[in-house]
Automatic annotation (TrEMBL):
Family matches, as PROSITE patterns: INTEIN_C_TER
The species this protein was found in: [Mycoplasma] phocae
The name this protein goes by in its record: Uncharacterized protein
């Protein structure tokens, strides 16, 4: 039986230490992952800092924490943030032990760190190169990590996120939204058990790491922290996805987060080190627009890291007995600095005071936070002023994600596959294209190759930022649920054709198309057939699949010549993808495709016409056109005599056109000339359909054959007349 949320919220009492206060010069290091390395979604990379030539350089929480030590007259002798921007506990343990055998096994992680460290856009470029020199395992270049640990007397640690996140049973989680209540409860219980099993293994590894650090340095004061809640804006999104139209009966996202916190608490307790809760939940929810400026950023931006550092220092420097007995009873003080008292008291026995300030608690908090709890968090520090040109509001995550996908050993390709497939998991059996994609992506490497083009040239950042702006309209960030976000995304897709194409065409210039041309062709053709034969568009983009559109799809799908035309279109676009990658939008592609393939398209149109007008199909075609007229005019039926005349007129017109191929060819030429200027993108995606500019009269040219033209126009006018009479 898995632990309950209430059990996971338990705090543990810290063991007594002979001496807790640090009264000598402070040699501080930080160990952690993405969060502790200060990844900033506006800068796009980690922002690890250190103390060099009297200056602290980072905008990560350890750097702000180190700055507070100096600002409050504690003797900071050295500081280095050793947090790795993408790491797990195994890799940190290998670094701490300088285990060359294990480091060789994890060379992909070293490659990832190196690629991040050398990236041209990284403001903190070469931070780790200056630490690891030549990155040579055999030459002992990584031994420096253990040496820093040996020399430290203060160590903060924040780990466990990646170990937990990438092991979550995503396939089961994504399927939850389609299950009935009893089945859903059963699977949720299974997921919770799996999370507990994963967490139990993480705890064992984490404890092993702490004991290894202690064996290297038994005197250092160690402080373990938890995390702020990841993707804070999307708190409600995940559970609204699972429960859809139902009331949320169990918050699975919160449960996973509680386990992440519990891991830190129990490891600190078992290893007899300090634990500090740095997630002031009520404050973060109220001020997330300042602390986490980007909706789609995993964690916070620089102000959020500053808040973490201020809280961490405050808790370690407070005189705890006075704080509880006196300060929390002072209403003026609490109104200024305390949002939620339990945040300050729940963990108060989980750590020991490490810093002794000459100031009273109330004066200390004023020194840390300023005139109120927001003041210094919101104003720029010297390092923020220095980086101000890079801290403007924007989303900048694609370069980092590109590197992560390339070099990480995580199953990101398989996660992508399962995410994609489970978007359609209630009707996968209807979609041949989805099955083909599933088979195509069974290889994790292929999944990565399909994802990588998305992150080129920062195009995805722009789309997500546009979506972020759209989400902020008429929204206080409290109700971004699954349906709300999905509808906003569809709106962005509909209204930003050029930006969507700029992402789409990145696949044209990627090697994956040439490498897997046959498989991709089969997928695209199946995709088109699914659009023609199923409710694919309705499900994915809320396309109003009305009856008229349905019967047109069904009729065209029944034609072998139309299927051949689709094959030709797909093969042409794939074969000449490099040329199409230079265009600006889908409409431009459509126009140029028709111009370049005019004569082949004319041949296909003749084949289609011959098929619909042959002896076997002409009656079926006549009935189809008759039904289309009824639906277009919203008519239930015609008077029997009028219907007979209309059918006869359609039949005769088709026969006349078939008997005059030159006249028909000229009509098709006019059709192509007009059709190339139609926006297919808007036709399928726009909510309000623009009236078609195609008129039957456009295809009839009197100069071509006067007699045939007169007969076709006469037939057309007769049909119009009978429609009006009905």
């Amino acid at each position: 039986m898995h632990k309950t949320s209430e059990e996971l919220k338990k705090y543990f009492k810290a063991e007594n230490h002979d001496k807790s206060i640090i009264d000598e010069e402070i040699n501080y290091i930080a160990i952690g992952d993405y969060f502790a390395s200060g990844f900033n979604s506006k800068i796009g990379f980690n922002t690890n800092g250190m103390l060099e030539n009297g200056v602290i350089s980072g905008v990560d929480y350890p750097s702000f924490f180190a700055s507070e030590l100096r600002n409050n007259n504690f003797r900071l002798n050295s500081f280095y943030n050793l947090s790795i921007p993408s790491t797990n506990i195994d890799f940190i343990l290998a670094l701490v032990k300088n285990d060359k055998k294990e480091l060789h096994k994890m060379e992909n992680r070293i490659d990832l760190l190196q690629s991040i460290d050398w990236h041209a856009k990284n403001l903190y470029k070469n931070y780790f190169t200056n630490l690891f020199k030549e990155w040579n395992i055999g030459k002992n270049d990584f031994e420096i990590y253990r040496r820093y640990i040996k020399n430290a007397n203060l160590i903060t640690i924040t780990l466990g996120f990646e170990d937990l996140f990438f092991k979550l049973p995503f396939e089961k989680i994504f399927k939850l939204s389609k299950l009935e209540k009893i089945a859903k409860s059963k699977i949720i219980n299974e997921v919770c058990n799996e999370i507990q099993s994963i967490a139990t293994n993480i705890i064992k590894k984490y404890q092993k790491l702490i004991w290894e650090i202690k064996s290297a340095n038994s005197k250092a004061k160690i402080v373990i922290t938890n995390y702020i809640k990841p993707l804070l804006y999307l708190d409600h999104f995940f559970d609204s996805f699972i429960w859809r139209d139902e009331a949320i009966k169990f918050n699975l996202y919160d449960y996973a987060f509680e386990w992440l916190n519990y891991i830190a608490k129990i490891v600190a307790h078992n290893c007899k080190v300090n634990f500090i809760d740095i997630y002031d939940e009520l404050y973060w929810k109220r001020h997330k627009n300042n602390l986490c400026e980007n909706i789609f950023s995993l964690f916070c931006t620089e102000r959020g890291y500053k808040k973490v550092a201020f809280d961490l220092f405050a808790k370690l420097a407070l005189k705890k007995d006075e704080f509880i007995a006196e300060d929390l009873k002072n209403e003026d003080f609490t109104n200024k600095y305390i949002d939620y008292q339990p945040y300050w008291t729940n963990d108060i026995n989980s750590y020991r005071q490490l810093f002794k300030s000459e100031l009273s608690n109330q004066k200390l908090l004023k020194e840390i936070y300023g005139e109120n709890k927001n003041f210094k968090i919101l104003i720029y520090s010297p390092i923020e002023n220095k980086l101000s040109n890079h801290l403007a509001s924007y989303l900048n995550i694609s370069d980092y994600l590109d590197l992560y996908i390339r070099f990480s050993d995580s199953d990101i390709g398989l996660i992508f596959k399962n995410t994609l497939l489970n978007t359609f998991n209630e009707i996968n059996d209807k979609y041949k294209s989805i099955e083909l994609i599933k088979n195509f992506l069974n290889d994790n490497l292929l999944g990565k190759k399909m994802l990588l083009p998305l992150f080129k040239q920062n195009k995805i950042d722009k789309i997500l930022f546009i979506l972020q702006i759209e989400l902020t309209k008429n929204n206080d960030f409290s109700d971004i649920d699954y349906l709300y976000l999905k509808n906003k995304l569809v709106k962005i897709i509909r209204n930003n054709q050029n930006d969507i194409y700029s992402i789409f065409k990145l696949f044209f210039s990627s090697g994956i198309i040439n490498e897997k041309k046959s498989e991709i062709k089969d997928i695209v053709i199946s995709f088109v057939k699914d659009i023609m034969n199923t409710n694919f568009l309705e499900h994915f983009i809320n396309f109003k699949n009305d009856y008229k559109f349905k019967i047109i799809k069904e009729y065209l799908s029944s034609l072998k010549s139309f299927e051949d035309l689709i094959d030709f279109v797909v093969e042409n676009i794939i074969n000449y993808s490099s040329g199409y990658s230079k265009l600006s939008n889908f409409d431009e592609l459509w126009n140029i495709f028709i111009v370049k393939n005019k004569y082949k398209l004319l041949a296909f149109l003749h084949r289609i016409f011959n098929e619909i007008s042959n002896e076997e199909n002409i009656e079926k075609t006549t009935n189809f056109l008759m039904e289309t007229i009824k639906i277009s005019r919203r008519l239930q039926s015609f008077k029997p005599n009028n219907e007979r005349i209309i059918k006869t007129t359609i039949f005769d017109a088709l026969s006349l056109l078939k008997a005059n191929p030159i006249f028909l060819k000229n009509c098709f030429q006019i059709l192509l000339k007009d059709v190339k200027n139609i926006s297919l993108y808007n036709l399928f995606l726009k909510e309000k359909k623009s009236k078609s500019k195609l008129k039957l009269r456009h295809f009839i040219t009197l100069n071509n054959n006067f007699i045939i033209s007169i007969k076709i126009i006469k037939a057309f006018n007769l049909i119009k007349k009978l429609i009006k009479k009905n």
